[in-house]
Amino acid sequence: MSIVAAQGLAVGYQGESVVAGLDFSLEPGQVLALVGSNGSGKSTLLKTIAGLLPPIQGSIEVLGARPLARPGQVAYMGQFHPSSFMLPLRAHDVVRMARFAAHGLFGRMTAADERAVHEAMAVMGVLDLAQAPLNALSGGQRQRVFLAQAFARDAGLILLDEPAANLDGASRDTYRREIRRLAAAGRSVVIATHDIDEAAECDATMLLAHRVVAYGPSASILTQQALLSTFGMVGKYQEGGIVIVEREHGHEGCESGH
Amino acid sequence: MILDCLVTPFTANAFLLNALLAGILVSVACGIVGTFVVLRGLAFIGDALAHGVLPGVAIAMLLGLPGMLGAAAGALGMIFGIGFITRRSNLSPDTAIGLLFVGMLALGVAIVSRSHAFSGDLVRILFGEILGIRPSELALQLAATLVIAVLARVCYRPFLLLCFSPEQAEVSGFPPRRYHAIMLGMIALTVVVSFRTVGTLLVFGMLLAPAASAALFSRKITTMVLSASGIGAFSVYTGLLASYHFDIAAGAAITLAASLIFFILLTARQLLPAAGAAGRTK
C-alpha cells in the first residue's frame, strides 16, 4: 500500500487551484522533495496531504484513508507558529505535544511517550534546552524544537515545510542524518524546500511552478533545464556573490549579494 | 487593629462574605477562561460577548424573565452572529465581532432608554451588584465554575494545541473549530454567570487583567491558570476592602485592583531581569 496516493489532484485555497494535475505516490521509506519558488504550491500541496486543506479536484489517500483519518500516524511541521512568542511553554512541553495525537483527550502518557520525546530532543540536540521557555530561544533553537516535535510523533508519514530554515550547518547535517535514518526505518517523508542540495539527497523530487514541471528520481530530475523552468534562473555560489549561470529568457551574468 | 481592618469586615457582615465568596468563584472561572483568552488573542471577542449580552438582559427584564436567561440568549446570538457574518462574507472575524459588538450594545441601550424604570437596572447590568449576592446565586456561580473547570481539564490538550497552532490541533485529531466553539462557550458561560456579580463591563476586566498579569511571569499554562485565579481572588479581596473602608463602588474597586496589580507586576518585571525572562522574546 502506498503511503500517499494522489490522482488528478488539484490543490489550492477557497476553490481556486494553485497546482493541478498532480499524480504521484509515496512508498514506505521514500523521501520526496517538493521544490519550487515562493508561491509555487509546495506548502499548499503539503497542507493538502496533511488534511489541512481540502482537495480542489481529484483524489488523495493518506495511509489508505482520507487525510486526517489517522492523526497519530502523520506528523506535520508548518512554516509558521504565530503564537509561539507569547505562549508560556518550555521546549519540553512543545515536543511532548506531539504525543497527544496518540492518546486523544483522556489517554494517559506512558513511559514509551516520554522515551520518544527524550529521544527526539536528543537527536535534535535540544535536551539541554528542555526547561527553557520557548519564547527565550533563538530562531534556530526553536526550529530544532519544532523538528523534535515532528520526530517525537513516531509517525509513518512526516511532512516538513522548510525544515532547514534558520538551522546552522551542524544542525542541518543532524536533521538530514535523522531523515535518512527514519527513511531507512521505513518512514516516509515529504519535504517542501528551496534547497536543491537537500532535494538531491531525497529519493524523489517534484518541481513545482504552479504546475508540475518534473517529477521523478532526484538524480534524473534536478537538471539545469528543469530548474530553469522552475525558478526562471539557475545560479551558483562563488566567492563574492551569487553568479547567475542561466536565465530562462536572458543572459548569464553576476548578481550581487551573499 | 490590623485584623479589624483586614478580616472583621467579612466576619461581621454576611453580605460582604457572600460578596467575597462570589468574587472568588468569578476569579477562578475568569482565571481559567481568561488564560485562554489572553493566549489566543481573544480579548476583543471577550469584550464583545461581555457587552453583547446587554440587549438579552434588557429584553428578559422587560418580559419579567431572569436576567441570566436573557444574557445567555444574548451571548449565543453574538457567537452565532459572528460565525454567520464570517462565513457569509469576506470580512475578518474582527470586523464581524466589531459590527455585532456596537450593534448589540446600541440595541441594549435603546431598549433600556425606552423605560425610565430601567436606568437603575442599566447600572446594575454594567457594574454588577456584588454586595447583593444571594446564597442561591452563589450556588449557581459555583456550579458554573465547576463546569468551566471540568471543561478546561477535559479539553486541556486541544486547547494547548489550539494556542500553539490550530494546524497542529487539526493534524493531531482535535478539530480546531469544535474546540474554538467550546472555548467561546466557556467565555459566554463566564460572562453570563458573572454579570450579576461584577457586571458586564467589569467581567471583561476580570477576564483579562489577572490572566495578563499571570502571563508576565508564568512558564507553564497550568501555572498561569492558577496564578490568574489567585490574582483575581486577591483583587476581589482588596477591592472589597477598599470598597468597605473608602465607600467606593465594589465592582469598580475590584477591577481597579486587578488592573493595578498588572501594572505593578509589569513594572517589577522591568526592574527584575530574572522575573522578566519568562516573557522575553528574541
Description:
The complex is a heterodimer of chains A (258) and B (282). With 258 residues, chain A is α/β, with parallel strands linked by helices. Chain A has a domain at 29-47 and 68-207: P-loop containing nucleotide triphosphate hydrolases (Rossmann fold, 3-Layer(aba) Sandwich). Chain A has nine helices and twelve strands. In chain A, α6 (169-184) links the parallel β6 (157-161) and β7. Residues 251-258 of chain A have low confidence and may be disordered. With 282 residues, chain B is mostly helical. Chain B has one domain: ABC transporter involved in vitamin B12 uptake, BtuC. Chain B has 15 helices and no strands. Chain B has helices at residues 2-6, 8-12, 14-39, 43-52, 54-62, 67-88, 93-113, 119-127, 135-154, 156-164, 166-171, 176-215, 221-246, 250-271, 273-276. Chain B is globular, with a radius of gyration of 19 Å. The model of chain B is unreliable at 278-282 (pLDDT under 50). The A-B interface holds A 47, 50-52, 68, 71-72, 74-76, 78, 81-90, 93-94, 97, 100-101, 103-106, 133, 135-139 and B 39-41, 154-155, 157-158, 160-161, 163-165, 167-168, 170-174, 215, 218-221, 223-224, 277-282.
Set down the secondary structure blueprint.
The complex is a heterodimer of chains A (258) and B (282).
Chain A: E1 4-13, E2 16-26, E3 31-35, H1 42-50, E4 57-62, E5 74-77, H2 91-96, H3 100-103, H4 111-123, H5 139-152, E6 157-161, H6 169-184, E7 188-193, H7 196-200, E8 204-208, E9 212-217, H8 218-221, H9 224-231, E10 233-238, E11 241-247, E12 253-254
Parallel strand pairs in A: 3-7, 3-8, 5-6, 6-7
Antiparallel strand pairs in A: 1-2, 1-4, 8-9, 10-11, 11-12
Helix pairs in contact in A: 4-5
Chain B: H1 2-6, H2 8-12, H3 14-39, H4 43-52, H5 54-62, H6 67-88, H7 93-113, H8 119-127, H9 135-154, H10 156-164, H11 166-171, H12 176-215, H13 221-246, H14 250-271, H15 273-276
Helix pairs in contact in B: 3-9, 3-12, 3-13, 4-6, 4-7, 4-12, 5-6, 5-7, 6-7, 6-12, 8-12, 9-12, 12-13, 12-14, 13-14
